[in-house]
Fold this protein.
Amino acid sequence: MATVEADVFASPEADDAVGLASSRGAIARATMYVALAAAWIATCGSLYMSEVLGWIPCLWCWYQRIAMYPLAVILAAGLIMRDRNVPKYALCLAVPGALASTYHILLQKVPAFARLETCVMGVPCSADYLNLFGFITIPMLALTAFLMVIVACVVALGVREEGAGKHYLTRGPLAVLSPAASVGLIVAAVVALFVLGGAMTRSRQPAPTITSSLPAAAQADASREAAAALYDQACAGCHGPASAGMQLIRAEYLRGHSDLEVLALIRAGRSAAAPDNFSGKAMPANGGQIGISDEQLLALVRYLREVKGQ
Ligand code: HEC
């Protein structure tokens, strides 16, 4: 890339205007490559959480994935092809992605939103697996990545031509590396990091332990109080408060089935199309909650019987 350097900078008439444009170009170039790294970290990170840690993505996680995964590919392809329009394509995905993350954060953090119950199947969208320092959740990390891409694209769109026939993406972020080599290195580094991290996590946990948002103490506790708390947390969203009689759980169903049969039903869930479905709505496997032990679930079944008088 030495020749490109020479073309732009060696001419005696390289005036201040070109100097300014190229330093802006350098910033835009650097931010676009940082955005590339952010999109790949977000992509690999989300796959790490679902495939290695076993956290089930909810509906809104999926909407954000739909924006983030192609964003990672489009940024890589656009930078390799030195396409100066890549910020425009990237914005088409990053802006809807950021909006989806924002809505998901509201679902988790604002009780009024959580009650909208967007997720009728699978994991409730208001479950937050990750809650660092009490406020950093998965959609917040996704929003950060989307915002980094948006900022980079806006900076890049403000850059004019650097020199005759050249623009800010003609070169890679480092003069010695071509764009293709730079993209290759960044993507390979991020993917390698997560594959390695995944392999290490797996080797440390032969049976992948699945965590839920329950406090550790509650997870081990199979007492009636713990069962009641578990019901409030995991089941009341759909079945209503225990004091209101647990809608959608029929007393005759409990009467006609053993504890283990009820446990098996809760484990497996019941699809809306199942022959024995009576409400037309689906019961998600494990109530959409992961990491509940059989002991806890049996305590929960006994609690259902107690409340329903069965
Ligand atoms: C996302 C909503 C949702 C959550 C969360 C949920 N359920 Fe359900 N559950 C349903 C629906 C809907 C039905 C009714 C299915 C049908 O019509 O057959 C149901 C049915 C059931 C039934 C069978 C009732 C019957 O009469 O056939 C049991 C037992 C049950 N749920 C227990 C639980 C427990 C325990 C939890 C918490 C760990 C839980 N559910 C969490 C939606 C949910």
Remarks:
- Residues 234-235, 237-239, 248-250, 253, 262, 265-266, 270, 277-279, 281-284, 287-289, 300 surround heme C (CB under 6 Å).
